[in-house]
Task: inverse folding
């Protein structure tokens, strides 16, 4: 039965024109970021190496596909969650708006299975978007800018050879996917709470902005500083430390996964208890 | 009058002494000048406190009159000075030498000489060279350049005969990098006290030369 509900939800997503619009929007943003990354990349390299130019000669090109991917990776963690939150929350708010939710639940489908399938399909959609984004980012960057060593400034100037840069970037994308998943699930929970699309989008956008601000704020509490959700969102950056703190990454991912589960369960419980009418 | 005589004598003595090029240095120069070309694989390690760079590999090729060329498929950082294996930059313009006695350098009793260029075109003001008189080789070289600071090269050799080193350690001053805050990544610590201090630090590059082929 659950499989059937999931299949229907997937069908709905694929048939909705806004899904296509959203995907196109993501790739347009990626294109803009790619172009700006190219120009910004030159500036960043000049800045990073300015003091060293008096002492050193450099052989090889640091403005390559790996640096562009790294810069895209840095730029996308605001734009992509925003679009994902709009689309994913729309999966439910459109059902409220069109009153299709009532038609669905008149069928022998439990509220838990219905909303559960929404969370599951939203997760699959998020994974698909990030996967497509990663494939296109790597593909275009390597095709246009070629491969080469990656230079990153994190507690020092770190240089990574091409092969190492690739797996660090790929791992960062993989870890970043969980952050994207968190934002998607939060937006769906907001959709459960607010039902209305505009309200949900506004709250989602505020949530995203606050998360980015909270990321930089130093709490006067070590537990909050370590495990508050906003502090876990950019765990993917740890892959660009010269010595990767794997244990910290695994703990952060586990805690963020628990946040995802908590947010989803909260949404399911609220949905079960609330009236269907908008 | 007495003092004038002493001053003139002092200058005359050191001038006549300094004008001559030291014979041991001339021997080393002769050995280095006999190299027509050479090629070698290079393995390079960078040791600078604020730079993390893995070991780099490349190739060096030298042709007399054309200088050295270093190539690598990786990105590499090479110190602008200190890798002049044939000392072309030091011997390029006329110079005088001044003996500074003997000194134990890296376990070898060396003759220490100052090289002072007599041409304004030279890009260094003074160089101190430590020579192994027995093998006619340079063990240590310290050069005060006009624009690129002071650098020191320590040279080690794989056998008693070869004129070119198999290991070069270059020490130099390097300014710390200053990054605007917007480029600082996650949890990048900003050490305000350290930033207030002078940014110059000592850097070290270790260059190993392998599979060397010298054409005399």
Result:
């Amino acid at each position: 039965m659950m499989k059937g509900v999931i299949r229907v939800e997937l069908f709905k997503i694929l048939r909705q024109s806004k899904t296509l619009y959203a995907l196109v929007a993501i790739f347009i943003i990626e294109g803009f970021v790619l172009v700006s990354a190219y120009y910004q990349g030159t500036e960043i390299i000049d800045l990073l190496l300015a003091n060293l130019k008096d002492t050193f000669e450099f052989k090889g090109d640091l403005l390559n596909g790996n640096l562009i991917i790294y810069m895209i990776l840095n730029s996308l963690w605001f734009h992509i969650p925003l679009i994902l939150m709009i689309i994913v929350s729309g999966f439910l708010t459109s059902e409220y708006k069109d009153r299709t939710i009532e038609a669905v639940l008149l069928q022998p489908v439990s509220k838990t299975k219905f909303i559960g399938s929404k969370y599951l399909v939203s997760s699959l959609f998020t994974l698909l978007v990030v996967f497509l984004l990663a494939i296109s980012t790597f593909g275009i960057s390597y095709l246009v800018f070629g491969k080469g060593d990656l230079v990153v400034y994190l507690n020092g100037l770190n240089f990574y050879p091409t092969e190492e840069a690739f797996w660090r970037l790929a791992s960062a994308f993989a870890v970043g996917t969980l952050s994207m998943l968190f934002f998607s699930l939060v937006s769906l929970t907001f959709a459960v709470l607010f039902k209305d699309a505009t309200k949900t989008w506004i709250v989602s956008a505020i949530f995203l902005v606050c998360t980015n601000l909270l990321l930089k704020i130093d709490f006067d509490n070590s537990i909050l500083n370590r495990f508050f959700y906003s502090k876990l969102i950019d765990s993917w950056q740890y892959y660009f430390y010269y010595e990767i703190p794997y244990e910290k990454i695994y703990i952060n991912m586990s805690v963020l996964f628990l946040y995802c589960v908590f947010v989803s369960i909260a949404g399911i419980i609220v949905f079960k208890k609330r009236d269907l009418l908008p | 009058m007495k003092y004038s005589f002493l001053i003139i004598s002092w200058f005359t003595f050191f001038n006549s002494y300094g004008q001559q090029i030291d014979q041991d240095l001339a021997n080393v120069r002769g050995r280095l000048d006999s190299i027509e070309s050479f090629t070698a694989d290079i393995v390079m390690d960078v040791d600078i406190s604020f730079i993390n760079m893995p070991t780099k590999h490349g190739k060096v090729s030298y042709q007399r009159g054309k200088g050295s060329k270093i190539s690598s498929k990786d990105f590499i950082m090479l110190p602008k000075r200190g890798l002049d294996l044939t000392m072309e930059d030091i011997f390029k313009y006329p110079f005088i030498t001044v003996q500074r006695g003997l000194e134990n350098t890296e376990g070898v009793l060396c003759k220490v000489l100052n090289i002072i260029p007599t041409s304004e075109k030279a890009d260094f003001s003074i160089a101190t060279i430590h020579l192994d008189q027995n093998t006619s080789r340079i063990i240590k070289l310290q050069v005060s350049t006009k624009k690129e600071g002071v650098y020191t090269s320590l040279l080690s050799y794989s056998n008693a005969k070869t004129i070119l080193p198999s290991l070069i350690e270059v020490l130099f001053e390097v300014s710390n990098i200053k990054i605007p805050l917007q480029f600082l990544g996650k949890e990048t610590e900003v050490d305000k006290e350290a930033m207030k201090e002078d940014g110059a630090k000592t850097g070290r590059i270790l260059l190993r030369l392998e599979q060397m082929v010298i054409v005399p």
